[in-house]
Amino acid sequence: MDTIDWQLDKNQASTLYKQIIEKIKDKIASGEWPPGTKIPSQRSMSDMLKVNRSTINTALNELIADGLLEAAVGSGTRVANNSWSVLASSAALWTPYTHRGLQQPNLSTIQKINTYEFDDRVIRLGTGELSPEFYPKELMQDTLRSIGENITSLGYEEPLGLYPLREELCRYLARLQIAATPASLLIVSGGLQALQLISLGLLNRSSTLYLERPSYLFSLNLFQSAGIALRGLSMDNEGISPEALQAVPATASRCLYTIPCFQNPTGTTMTAKRRTELYDLCAAKRLPIIEDDVYRELWFDSPPPLPVKTLDKQGLVLYIGSFSKALSPGLRLGWITGPEPVISRLADIKNQIDYGSSSLSQWAVHRLLASGAFYHHVDSLRGKLLARRTVCLQILEQYFADIATWTVPQGGFYVWLTLKKPVSLNRLFYTALDNGLLLNPGNLYDKQASQNLRISYAYARLDDLATGLHRLAELIKTYRL
């Protein structure tokens, strides 16, 4: 099937990608597109419907996620064999609503990753979390036992979060030369929630968020679902390019997002000089900064430069931190600090969403900070991560020297791998999955990163890491991808 006999109504309130979804579902339900029908390519549909390919991609990804379409490597996208039963078994009343919400679905590759991360049969080569072997079991048992003997209830905390924890965080931030008060700190359920609150409370549909390219945020639909445009800025080995930042226009509603320490996905750390340049340029442009510093504690040989927030005398920087990366992702605990009116606004939104982060997690982290146990833990963790990074680089040198180059991070979780010859990352992803490997393709973080992979040395066991990388190298060398 090479043509489409319908057009989109750009005057409708419904978004274009949702119109595409409904049109395709109508074709399937009516029998005009029976199971097995090959639909036009994204490029053809884009030309015929006169919309961007990204709009087509979003619609098709949602239909694939719903089980109505299926994408096969090398043969395009077809109507799924069970599409009629999927439509017939759907709750007739609620099904249309699943396409009307504000939050856009994850990319289909991200949905696959999220599913297969819980499959013990695959080796996870890109996972952005610590291996279970790094979980401080005895420390957490002692901590939970201690707080269990001392707390008398687990009710709601103050809107800003547990006050004793915010006091400890002020002391922690003082070690980084950041002056904060309990009133300027909000406890959040991980760094990602801090970004969600910003998207809901500080920006609007006409806003633009500038950020590094590539960046972890491009793999999410967090800001895009709120109608906020993302604009990538080029990087070098020192961080965001000053020239790219200088070119940011002086529009009314925009801000900058950056991960200056062990950036996700490249592992790059912004130099002290570049941090000063970045802050000075943003101050001159009155461009607010969101500094995401969740990887800071995971340095190897020496601490990274001080946060951009330490340069802030104008209340320009919102500073985000987290304990999830260094302790356990299941804690879901982080913080954001900035001007008190901004923090108050974000706290009000958070309390409308969830009435506050887990009291148990807050008391546990308070105990870890107050006792000094957190600092001892991360000291030990750094050495273990460094050993893993060293082994990972040795494996890459052994198997990838003739087919790729890579970064050498000074902390964090990630190596940014660049293949020397072009491949189809989509085909590589599914071929690797068929061979028991779960990858994080670079084009999740930048559509132009078509020869990159995010490699993590933090999660897989070392023997699995060696096996997985060897197998991946053989796939790249053997298959026509």
Note the topology:
Layout: H1 16-30, H2 42-49, H3 53-65, E1 69-72, E2 76-79, H4 83-89, H5 108-116, E3 123-124, H6 137-150, H7 163-175, E4 185-188, H8 191-201, E5 208-212, E6 229-233, E7 235-236, E8 239-240, H9 242-246, E9 254-258, H10 272-285, E10 289-292, E11 317-322, E12 334-337, H11 340-353, H12 359-371, H13 373-400, E13 404-406, E14 414-419, H14 425-434, E15 437-438, E16 452-456, H15 462-478
Parallel strand pairs: 3-15, 5-6, 5-9, 9-10, 10-11
Antiparallel strand pairs: 1-2, 4-12, 7-8, 11-12, 13-14, 14-16
Helix pairs in contact: 1-3, 2-3, 6-12, 7-12, 8-11, 13-15
Give an overview in words.
- There is one protein chain.
- This protein is an alpha/beta fold and 481 residues long.
- It has 3 domains: 16-101, Arc Repressor Mutant, subunit A (Orthogonal Bundle); 111-134 and 378-478, Aspartate Aminotransferase, domain 1 (Alpha-Beta Complex), CATH 3.90.1150.10; 137-374, Aspartate Aminotransferase, domain 2 (3-Layer(aba) Sandwich), CATH 3.40.640.10.
- Helices cover 40% and strands 13% of the residues.
- The chain has 15 helices and 16 strands.
- A 7-stranded mixed sheet has the order 4-12-11-10-9-5-6, sandwiched between helices. A 3-stranded antiparallel sheet has the order 13-14-16, with no helix packed on it.
- A hairpin with a 7-residue loop joins strand 13 (404-406) and strand 14.
- Helix 8 (191-201) packs across helix 11.
- It is globular and about 65 Å long.
- In the C-terminal section; belongs to the class-I pyridoxal-phosphate-dependent aminotransferase family.
- GO terms for molecular function: catalytic activity; DNA binding; DNA-binding transcription factor activity; pyridoxal phosphate binding.
